[in-house]
Amino acid sequence: AQSVAQPEDQVNVAEGNPLTVKCTYSVSGNPYLFWYVQYPNRGLQFLLKYITGDNLVKGSYGFEAEFNKSQTSFHLKKPSALVSDSALYFCAVRDYRRDDKIIFGKGTRLHILP
Amino acid sequence: DAGITQSPRHKVTETGTPVTLRCHQTENHRYMYWYRQDPGHGLRLIHYSYGVKDTDKGEVSDGYSVSRSKTEDFLLTLESATSSQTSVYFCAIRDRGRETQYFGPGTRLLVL
Fold first, then answer.
1. Is A107 close to B99, i.e. CB distance below 8 A?
2. How many CB atoms sit inside 10 A of residue B6's CB?
3. Using a CB-CB distance cutoff of 8 angstroms, which residues of chain A are in contact with residue B108?
4. At residue A97, does pLDDT exceed 80?
5. φ, ψ of residue A21 in degrees (nearest 5)
6. Cβ contacts (< 8 Å) between A23 and chain B: which residues?
7. Percent of chain A scored above 90 by pLDDT?
8. What is the residue range of A54's domain?
9. Which of B42, B90, B94 lies at the smallest CB-CB distance from A43?
10. CA spacing 20 to 30 A to B57: which of B1, B30, B44, B90?
11. CA atoms lying within 13 Å on the CB side of residue A25
């Protein structure tokens, strides 16, 4: 069965600094990986995905993520944080050869300090 | 938002009563999902559907049932609501072509 771990409940970053939100995953087969963002009192919005190809994927709002197969990680990054990036971020995985389930992590709350 | 609506958006009910939440989509997607969101637990998959009358269990399916009699509607039923089912419930579709999920606005359920 697949699973996702987001080891940090909260990450604080000063505005203008680079940010990283960590995600590791576990699947028996081959992963499709996703990042979603949730702003207060809103639903989830898709940010980016890794399906195949380049390990570095770029998404919405200047975010990118790097797929690392050997470390089973898919960390979310942004070179320069904005206060408006403050939100709850979720990593998700699907084992695409075995299952239609899409499993989410517990989420990481990102605070960007002005 | 991929044309996803959820109803009701808010509901207060009492322990032991049945509750049905509805997810409706307008774009004919085959795959639909129900999740619950709770502090400290993130999003947990309850049930999902891969076609009309085709459903399967997720991570936290106990106490929940689902039905999908037509492509556009996916119903989540709490047969006898308990306080532990107080949560925010999100429906999602999976766009197979884009391999991306899109979420509905959520239903906030309070079981007293």
1. no
2. 21
3. none
4. no
5. -120, 125
6. none
7. 82
8. 3-113
9. B90
10. B1
11. 30
Total residues found in chain B within this entry:
112
Q: Structural domain tally of chain A?
A: 1
Domains located in chain B, CATH noted: 4-111 (2.60.40.10)
CA distance B32 to A111: 32
Whole-angstrom Cα Rg for chain A? 14
Predicted confidence (pLDDT) per residue in B49-86, tens digit:
999 999 999 999 999 999 999 999 999 999 999 999 99
CA B29 – CA B94 distance, rounded (Å): 7
Query: Which amino acid belongs to residue B77?
Result: T
Give the span between the Cα atoms of B63 and B34, in whole angstroms: 13
CATH number of the domain that A43 lies in?
Answer: 2.60.40.10
SS3 A61: helix
Which chain A positions have a beta carbon within 8 Å of B30's beta carbon?
Answer: none
Best of B31, B41, B43 to substitute, by most chain A Cβ atoms within 10 angstroms, is B43
Best B10, B56, B101 member to test A by mutation, with max A CBs in 10 Å, is: B101
The pair of three-digit structure tokens given for residue A91, joined into one six-digit string: 């990593």
Alpha carbon separation from B105 to A76, B5, B57, B69 (Å, rounded):
24, 7, 22, 22
State which residue of chain B sits closest to A39, comparing Cα positions.
Answer: B105
B41 contact residues in A (CB cutoff 8 A) = 106
